[in-house]
Write a structure and sequence with these properties.
The structure is a single chain. The chain has helices spanning about 5-20, 40-50, 55-60, 60-70, 80-85, 95-105, 120-130, 145-160, 180-190, 205-215, 245-250, and strands at about 25-30, 35, 115-120, 135-145, 165-170, 195-200, 215-220, 235-240. It is α/β, with parallel strands linked by helices. The chain folds into 2 domains: about 5-40 and about 115-250, Rossmann fold (3-Layer(aba) Sandwich); about 40-115. The strands form 2 sheets. A 6-stranded parallel sheet has the order 5-4-1-6-7-8, with helices on both faces. Helix 2 (about 40-50) packs across helix 6 (about 95-105) and helix 9 packs across helix 10.
C-alpha cells in the first residue's frame, strides 16, 4: 500500500501542480513559534535582567534562580521556565512585575531578534516551496515600527527567501491591532489573487478565525506553543516542525 504523504509533502505537490497548470500559489507563514524557535530570545532577555547590578542588589535570590532557569521551546511566556527553577510569582510579586515589564519591552522590539533560531527544516521547506514556483508571504503579528529591521535582518541571515516580488514580509502597521483580525483581513484580500493559499501558523485563535471566515485557505497547525486561549479544530492538519518525511524522501530544496 502506498504511504499517504504528509501535509508538508501535499503542500509541495500542490505547489508543483499549480506551477504545471500555471495557477498562482501563495504560501503564508507566521514567524514566532512557527518558522522560529524563540527560546534564545526569551533566555537572553531574562538573563540580561538578572545580570543587571541594580536588580541583583534588589532581588539577589530571585536573580540567581533566574540565571539558573532554562527556557524550553514549549514554554509560553516566563512562568513555566522560572517555575522549574523554583521561582513562583506568588513568592516574588515585585520581581515578577519588573521582569515582565522588561520582557515586554525587549520581546517586542529589534534588540534580541537575532537570538531566534529557525525551527527544524523551516528554511529548507520555505525554499523548496519557492523552488516549486510558490509565492512566499511572512505574515506576522510583529509590528513595523518596533520590529521590522530586526525581522528583515534575521530572515536574510538565515537564508529565508526575501527581497524580490515573490517573497514579501507583512507586519502589523500598528502594535495595537488584533493579530487574528489583521491576518484575516490580509488573507481575505490574497484569496482574490491566488487560486491556492496555504497558511502555516501556531496560534489556534488565528487559525480558527481564518477557518470560519476564509474557508478557501488551506490551514496547517504548527504544534509548538501558543496562548492557550483556544484549541485548534481537531480536523486541522498539524506538524510539530518542518523536518518531516518530505526531507527524508528527496523533496529538499535544490
Amino acid at each position: 500500500m502506498r504511504e499517504a504523504p504528509s501535509i508538508l509533502r501535499k503542500a509541495l505537490e500542490s505547489a508543483r501542480g499549480a506551477r504545471r497548470d500555471r495557477e498562482p500559489f501563495l504560501a503564508v507563514f507566521d514567524l514566532d513559534s512557527t518558522l522560529y524557535d524563540l527560546t534564545g530570545r526569551v533566555q537572553k532577555i531574562i538573563e540580561t535582567f538578572a545580570h543587571d547590578p541594580e536588580r541583583r542588589k534588589k532581588y539577589p535570590e530571585a536573580c540567581e534562580k533566574t540565571l539558573a532557569a532554562r527556557i524550553h521551546p514549549q514554554d509560553w511566556g516566563l512562568k513555566e521556565g522560572l517555575g522549574r527553577a523554583g521561582l513562583r510569582e506568588a513568592d516574588h510579586p515585585d520581581f515578577f512585575s519588573e521582569l515582565h515589564s522588561h520582557w515586554l519591552h525587549f520581546f517586542f522590539n529589534n534588540a534580541y531578534l537575532g537570538e531566534d533560531r529557525p525551527m527544524p527544516g523551516a528554511v529548507e521547506f520555505v525554499r523548496a516551496l519557492e523552488n516549486e514556483g510558490a509565492h512566499i508571504m511572512y505574515l506576522t503579528g510583529r509590528d513595523t515600527g518596533r520590529m521590522r529591521d530586526g525581522t528583515l535582518a534575521s530572515l536574510r541571515a538565515w537564508g529565508f527567501p526575501l527581497g524580490h516580488e515573490r517573497a514579501r514580509l507583512l507586519l502589523k502597521p500598528e502594535p495595537g491591532l488584533n493579530d487574528a483580525r489583521f491576518k484575516l483581513s490580509v488573507l481575505q484580500n490574497e484569496v482574490r489573487a491566488y487560486r491556492h493559499v496555504w497558511l502555516f501558523e501556531n496560534e489556534p485563535v488565528n487559525l480558527n478565525l481564518v477557518r470560519e471566515n476564509c474557508p478557501g485557505v488551506n490551514l496547517v497547525f504548527i504544534e509548538t506553543t501558543h496562548s492557550g486561549r483556544e484549541r485548534a479544530a481537531p480536523e486541522l492538519a498539524r506538524v510539530p516542525h518542518f523536518e518531516t518525511d518530505w526531507l527524508c524522501k528527496g523533496e529538499g530544496a535544490s
